[in-house]
Each structure stands twice: as structure tokens, then as C-alpha cells.
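so my prof wants the structure for this chain in the C-alpha cells format not the other one, which i didnt know existed until like an hour ago. anyway here's the sequence
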Amino acid sequence: MYERILLPTDGSRGNSRAVKQAIGLAAETDAELHVLFVVEDIPYAPEMMDGEVEARLRQIGEDAIEDIRERADDAGVEIETAIEDGTPHRAILEYADDEGADLIVMGTHGRSGLDRYLLGSVTERVVRGAEIPVLTVRVSDEPNV
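here's what i got, hopefully its the right format
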């Protein structure tokens, strides 16, 4: 059914359910699981994106990917990983297209808080812009669901 599943992550613990769903689907369908973290450009304050901030964001991405890798290994699922720079929804859609993903699995919202209401959520923008199915998973406040 699925050959390549894309799991974008923002490193938030609430997306644990989306991780569980993506790994489960990949295991059941013998699909490749691609995990993507996007280091977001900050268009309203580019001067704030100094080396220290960017390094911290990359570390969050690396930690998130490593956590998912451990969970995937436990389930016998191999993953491909990437850390990209850019606007999250655009980077997710471009990655899905470039890698030939046939499903995107992501949480209903990440860590954007008020930003989500002012600018629209990344998930909503991915759903609206994707040419492939997007499975949205309601996030949890519990860290290991």
C-alpha cells in the first residue's frame, strides 16, 4: 500500500502519537520511513538567526531524529533522515515530492502555540498543499504515548 512514508518532526514530545502511527504503518506495509526535521527560517527577525540559535535548532532536530530512530529500530523499521533549512510546510512538501513519498504522517500541531493561530499551522498548510494523502494524528500532552 505504501512504499515511502514521510514523518516530519519538530522535536516536540506531543507528536509521539504521530511517530507511533508512522512507525506502525511502515512496519505493516514494509515501507521506507523518512524522518524530516526543518530548521525554520525566521523571516521576521533574520538577525536573530545567528550561529548559536541555528546550532541549537539543529541539535533539537538531531535529538528528535535519534529518538525516532531508536523507536523505529525497536520495531524493525529502517529510516532515512534529513535536516533541511527553510519554511517548514514548503520544505516538507518539497521533500515529499523529491523523495517520492506516498504518505505524510504528522501531528495536528507542534510547538508553535500562538503562532499557529496567527499564521496557520504547518500541518494545515501541508494538508492543503500536498498531492498525496496526509494522515494527521491528534497530539498528546503525554510524553510517551
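also thought this was worth mentioning. The chain has a mean pLDDT of 87.
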